[in-house]
Amino acid sequence: MTEQRTSTDSDQSEAIIAALQDARERQAPVYISAGGTKRNLVGRQCNAAELDVSAHRGIVDYQPQELVITARAGTPLTEIAAILAGHQQRLPFEPPLFGGRATLGGTLACNLSGPARPWSGSIRDMVLGVQMINGKCERLTFGGKVMKNVAGYDVSRLQAGALGTLGVLTEISLKVLPQPQKALSLCFAMTADEAVQTMNQRAAEPKPLSGAFWVDGQLYLRLSGAANAVDSTARQWGGESVEDDNALWEALREMALPFFAGDAPLWRFSVQSSARVATDFGETLIDWGGAQRWLRGEHSREQLDRFANDAGGHASLFRGGDRNSEVRPPLGKVERRLQQQLKHSFDPDGILNPGRLYSWL
C-alpha cells in the first residue's frame, strides 16, 4: 500500500519555502503553527507572526506489512490513527489528540507521548526519518522509511522537543505497532508512596503492563497483549476491574481528568520512577510507573528544581504560569553552547520560533 489520498491532502512545501524566504529577507521571525493546540504548552510564549502550515497534510506512504507510515507534518493524528486502525495497528506512544486538532508535526516538535511511554516508547523512539525546511530555506532529508536506516548524527530524533526552532517539519516517517489482542485495567486503593513502590515492583515483572498511574488514592494498572497473558496476570495481581477503562486512559492522555482542570500552573516532573513523592507541594498525579509526576499551583521554581534534582530528574512548567520566563530546566554551559551551535547551523538568522525553547535561543 502506497500513498492514500483524501480530499484534504496537499503538498504545501513550495508555499512554506516562499513564506520563509520572505521572512528571512525581511528579518521577520515566524511562529510555526498547524493545529494550534500547543501554543500555550511545553514552551515559552512566542510573539512572532504565525506561519500556518496546517494545509500541508496527507498520508504519503503506508506499508502495513513493514509497520511504517509516512505523513506530512500538518496531518491530524486522528486521520493517521483511523488509517492504522483499519489494519489493526496503532501509534504505540499514545499521543494526546487534543480534540482531534493535534498534528503529527506539532506532536514531534513538542515530544508528547501518552501513558504507554515507558513500555512502548516515545514518539522520538518511533521516528525513522524526517523531511524539513531549515531557516536557510533549504529542503533537508534525514533518516529514511525503513528500520535500521540511521547512520551518523540522528537529526530526525533531534527534532523531538526542539519546538520548531531548527526547521519546519514537512514529512515524518514513523514506526507503528499492532493493536494488542486484549486490554484491561485494575484499580487498587493505596497511598502515593505505596503506589510508587507497587508500580516499580510490577514494572520489574515479565508481565504485559502497558500503563500505571496514581491519583486521588487510587492506583490504576493497565494490561495489554495476548489474551491469555492479560487474563493470567489479572488473576495474579487482583484488584478491582475498571469498567470502561478506555475512557479512563483517554482522559489521562488528553489531560481531561479532574486533576488537570482549572487555570492553576501545571508542572511536570521527569524523575527516577522510585523517587519519593513530593508531599510538600500538595496534590499530585503520578504517571509512567512513577517516572512522570504532575503538580498544580504556584510554587517556587528553585524549590521544585531542588526536589527534581534530588529525585534524579528535572521539572518544567508545562501549562499556565509565567510563560515569558524560562519554563524548562536550566542548562549547563556545555549544553547551552551545543544548543546555540545547533540553532546557528539550522537557523543562522534566528527566524524560527525565537525564544520558544529558551529565552536565549
Which terms summarize this structure?
361 residues; alpha+beta; Uridine Diphospho-n-acetylenolpyruvylglucosamine Reductase, domain 3; five-stranded antiparallel sheet; four-stranded antiparallel sheet; 11 helices; 27% helix; 24% strand; globular
TL;DR of this structure?
The chain is an alpha+beta fold and 361 residues long. The protein has 11 helices and 17 strands.
Please give a structural write-up.
By secondary structure, the chain is α+β, with helices and mostly antiparallel strands. The protein folds into two domains: 13-178, 2-Layer Sandwich (Uridine Diphospho-n-acetylenolpyruvylglucosamine Reductase, domain 3), CATH 3.30.465; 182-319. The protein is built from eleven helices and 17 strands. The chain has helices at residues 13-26, 77-85, 104-110, 117-120, 123-126, 155-158, 192-203, 227-237, 245-253, 301-310, 333-346; strands at residues 30-33, 49-52, 59-63, 68-72, 89-90, 127-133, 139-143, 168-175, 177-178, 182-189, 209-215, 218-225, 240-241, 266-270, 284-287, 292-296, 314-319. A five-stranded antiparallel beta sheet has the order 3-4-8-6-7. A four-stranded antiparallel beta sheet has the order 11-12-10-13. The longest helix is centred in the N-terminal third of the chain and has 14 residues, at 13-26.
